[in-house]
Amino acid sequence: MQLQVAIDRLTLDDAVTAAKKLDGHADIIEMGTSLVKDYGFAGMQAMRAAVVQSQLLVDLKTIDEGAYEFQQGFKAGADILTVMGASSWATIETVAKTTAAAGGTMMIDLLEVPQVKLKIITDVKRAIYALHHSKDRHDKLDPTATVAEFHHNFPQVQHIAIAGGVDLAGAKALAAQGLTDIVIVGGTIMNASDPVAATEEFMEAIR
Amino acid sequence: MQLQVAIDRLTLDDAVTAAKKLDGHADIIEMGTSLVKDYGFAGMQAMRAAVVQSQLLVDLKTIDEGAYEFQQGFKAGADILTVMGASSWATIETVAKTTAAAGGTMMIDLLEVPQVKLKIITDVKRAIYALHHSKDRHDKLDPTATVAEFHHNFPQVQHIAIAGGVDLAGAKALAAQGLTDIVIVGGTIMNASDPVAATEEFMEAIR
């Protein structure tokens, strides 16, 4: 299982500094949507320059105009880009093509996607499907139960990620369960007094 | 009925030039999502400086972290911001509060929102509900039939907008129908040889 650390809601300078510190410690460093909407393409390039050893995921959250947004994201140097599962199937198909052409990876964010829609969109080969609990919701997510239920309902999905309030114990349980490719952690690491030490703690817990 | 002209997929310089030309001609000028993700907050401020007489809509397409994104959008000077109807209800409630606190206006983008979800989200007072056909889809939208059906199903919605391939005849028919507050036009105007003349033509058709 890999660890993805999400960097969000910082100035670009602070985000770049944080990314440089975490580079090589986390498997994947995420440039969060807030940074995309605050700093745009130039911000993506700055994050790419900061992340040399880890993979860079840019959380574009594309929901329309898939080809354009994914071309821009890969042009900026991202390894992985996100599309919303709530998009039209046409958008998901389009970004799958753009991703293949760019030799990149796509993550489908399943935030608020109903079961009936999941049945339509869970056949994209090589895509990572991210189970995602909205930050605006106040209820909590049980990581292993959520992954187990998704895997039971959609056994054809090969790559699962999970985001939304996963703590150290949750990450450890996910690793032991063996169904998840990527655990995504944001505030728990970034708000720690020492984010690099917190990253190492998570890395140790999931290995 | 008002006309909203969407500016998308240009360099910021060209977008600002276009916005200055259209300012005062269209009721609302839209900074499209591609410009947000390419140029970020500084891009929003540049568009705000260019649009003095018309209203400025920034097509944020927020789907999570509603308070942060809407605070940033209003801080940049937008009059109207968009949230995806596909968001969690918690996100929509959050941006409604942020919008009220900022004295701004919110538009709920109904792209790919199923009927069952529409029933939950159609009670936000003062919100504009935008019927929206994905640009990645190849089928066409019948504007007046789409609006009539939506109005029949959700008569409590007071403010309707529609986007997605509406041409001059479609805009005229929508104005005559009298159910739509805002018609949103992108490429048909922006790709015309003279976008200002095309805007005037639409404005005349809907008055």
From TrEMBL, chains A, B:
Gene3D superfamilies xrefs: Aldolase class I
Top-level taxonomic group: Bacteria
Keyword annotations from UniProtKB, A to Z: Lyase
Cited SUPFAM superfamilies: Ribulose-phoshate binding barrel
InterPro entries in alphabetical order: Aldolase_TIM, OMPdeCOase_dom, RibuloseP-bd_barrel
BP-aspect Gene Ontology terms: 'de novo' pyrimidine nucleobase biosynthetic process; L-ascorbic acid catabolic process
Domain Orotidine 5'-phosphate decarboxylase: residue ranges: 2-202
GO molecular function, one term: orotidine-5'-phosphate decarboxylase activity
Protein name as it appears in the record: 3-hexulose-6-phosphate synthase
Organism per entry: Agrilactobacillus composti DSM 18527 = JCM 14202
